Structure formats: C-alpha cells, structure tokens
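[job 4471] stage=fold_predict status=RUNNING
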Amino acid sequence: MQKRTKILLILSVLPALLLAGCSLDDPATPADLNGPGLEDAGARYAAIGNSLTAGYMDGGLMQAGQAGSYPRLIAQQLGLDDTSFTQPWIKAPGIGAVNTTTGEVDGVYYFNGAGLARLGSTPALDVQSTLLLAGTQPVAYHNLGVPGALLTDGRNAYSAATSFGASLTPPSPNPFFDFINRAALFGNTEVTLAAGPPAVTTQSTSMHYKAIAKGGALTTVWLGNNDVLGAATGGNPTAANITDPTAFGVEYNTMLQTLAGGLLKRNGFPATIITANIPSVTSAPFFIPTATFETAIGGAWPWGFEESNVDYVLFPTLSWVADAGNLGSPIPSTATLTTTEVTTVETAIATFNGIILNATTTLAATEAVPGSGIPLARAAMVDANDLLAGLAAAQKTHFLLLVGGGMPPATAAATTAFSLDGIHPNNVGYGIVANAFIAQLNALEGTSVPDVDLAGLSWDPTYGVPLTAPTKTDRPYRMTPEDAAGLTAVWR
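[job 4471] inference complete, writing structure tokens
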C-alpha cells in the first residue's frame, strides 16, 4: 500500500515529463509499482525503430522478412503470439524501391542463380489495396518500425508528407509512414508533453506516441542509423548530409525521457526500455573493401577511380562495372568511400553512439521525482556496433561474393548473416540481434527469457524460384541497372 500511495502521488506531480493533458487512459489505481513481470502472459511489448526494427530484408519489406524481425522474435520468446504482438504484414512481392523505369513499386530481391532480380512489382496505386494485409487493423501495431525513419521522425512524423524526406530539396517523402502509422485511419493531433519553454510536443500518430499508447512493460528503441547511413550509401558523406550531433543529442534525450515519462503515466509503473546503438558501416557487406572488390571483378578496374585512397566500393558498383557502357570510365566518387570519408562516417557514428549510451545511462539513473526512489524507467543499451563488428568475416560477406568464390548457394545462405541488400540482416542475423536484446533484458530485470534458437532459423535467398545455373564466365554478380539503382534506397 505504501508503494501504491507513493506512485500515485508521483503520478500527480509530473507535468514536465509525463504527458499532462493527454488522451490516454491512465490507470486509476495502479496495482503494483513494479507492474507485470516481463515473462508473464499478457505483458505488453512495443518496438520503435527504422527498417532494422521493421524486419526489412532483401531490399524490401515483406512477410517473409517481417516474420523474422527481431521484435517478433523477442515477442515469441516472451510468449506473445501474433495477436498480442502485431506487425504491418506486407504481402509478396513486398515493398522495396520505386522502379525508375516502370514507375511501379518493386518487391524484394531474390537470387536467380546468375545474380539478383526482383521477385515482382506492383503498380504504385495498388500497393495499399493489395499488399497491406493488416492495413485495416483498428489499433496501432506493436512493431512500429518504419523503414527510412530518422531520429527526428520518431516524435514528429506520422505520414509521408510529414517525414523528414519531405522537407528535402527535391522532396523525398517516405510512404512507409502512410502504410505503418496510418494517420489517414487514425487522424493526428499535436500533443504537448511539456509546456516549456521551449515546449516539447509529439504527434499522436507518431511511433513515439503510439508506443506510449500501447503501454508496453517493455519497449525497445533502435533509431539513429539513418542519420548517418544515408550519407554513406550515397558515396559522398560530409557534415552537411549527416545529422548535426548537437541536434541529435537534444532529440535523442527528449525522445527517450518523454517516452519513459509517458509510459510511467500511462501504466502506473516504470517501464523497461532497451535501446541500441549504431553499427559501423564496415560491418555491412554493402561496403566492399577495395581489395575484395577487385578480386570479385577479376582484377583492378583498368580505368581506376575518380577518387584516390579508396577504402570501400559500394555493392551496386558490381553491376556498374558489368555495363559495357562504362568501359573506359573511372569508377565514380558516388560509388566509393575514401579513407577521409570513412573517417567522417565513423566519427559521426562514434559521436552518436556516445549520445545514445549517455542518454540511456542518464535515463536509468533518473528518478520520477527527485528523492522518490522511483525510477523513471529501467533502461539498458544493446551495443549493436560491437555485436556486428564481432561477427566472423564470412558472416559479414555478401552472399554473392561467397557464391562467386566457389561456395555452394545453400552453404553461402547458411553462412552470411546479411540479406541480399547488403545492409539488413537475414533471418539468422535478426536472430543474433534479438538475442542481444534478450541478454540485456535478462541482465536488467533478472529474468530468464530464453534465447532464440539460431539453429532453427534459415534464410532462402531464392524464395523458392528455380535457379539459373551460373557459369565460370558469368559470375553471379549481375543485376539490371534498374535493380542496382534500387539498392541505393536500401537504407530506408
């Protein structure tokens, strides 16, 4: 009773952090300061993030990849089924990039034996009516990950028109917000979290506020990757196309503190929040070391590079050099990362990761009201950077390079931890990520949630399509120019 009285008192004096005046249904009489155990049946879980959270795989979002998303794997280990943990299921052939030639929305990639091809395509106007299997679900999804989301989108975006990309010149609105946040179905209002100054607001149909509304005893947060990765995949990263570190720090702390405060107000007990930091680009097979690239194409490119001191070549360049129209031309700067550019990217990642760690550590040490002894939330961080850097070299090698080196396709599929787009994990890779979150959860809460059985996970890059046998003179590095262009959007 003493604990209950204390938490009710605290809930009454949190105007700065705890969503004063929001429309959520607050518990009138919280039953227990500690809330339900995370291993209890019915314990709620919500996930905030970008494509890595959504289960993006093989260059698109589709049910086969979503089924292996790390949040769904965690939910299964918590005993939650697909009714208790919902996702925005996407029907085959999935949603990838817009084909610049046809104007249609291409699906995921698959391996056809000679290279990569798209599993299919869908007219843009038909995507919502034919591919969104859960588009009419009357409540928000538990997996709120939106491919392409930047950190600022977490609190502020609720539609393509309000996504960060819509503010660019030329505009590049992110349609995944329309598919996943579904403001057209729910509507949207601006919610004041703190009166300020400056005032802190969020959008009612943002992933941030939806996560609060879901009232998760556990919420995972993996945002920030796209604030630097987009610059790296464009081949010319600079301070101008990477999120400003000061702005990143302010937004990350605001997002995390208000998420924790909102969940405490919503639930009546401190939630568990597990964050994750940003992996190095050198851990993703999209970025091919120059020596490996030259081995793959049979030697140094005779016409060299536009830039000097090239450390990495971007994966789509394997298609560029196979185009006879490029013979006689140096590999362009947009297809490479120099030593200086790698330093620019890695410095930004290290800075952002320091911010994420500090914000998580600060949250874990913050009391709901100073001197109360009640934490605002229980928090820990997954070191995704260290996790992926620690994978074996073959696990970080692209499937096509393994096959091109003589490894049988089935063996290559079971070896690499990444999908065909070279950025996002495959089913096993997402299992590795899920286990890292589970390890932090168990360490933080003293629980014994079991690991995902990685031996029970598999990835089929052919999607069941019969192979066209590759030959020695036709190495399996081929993509059409349209498919190669689509790979530049995989960071979404």
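[job 4471] summary: The first strand starts at residue 45 and ends at 49.
[job 4471] exit 0
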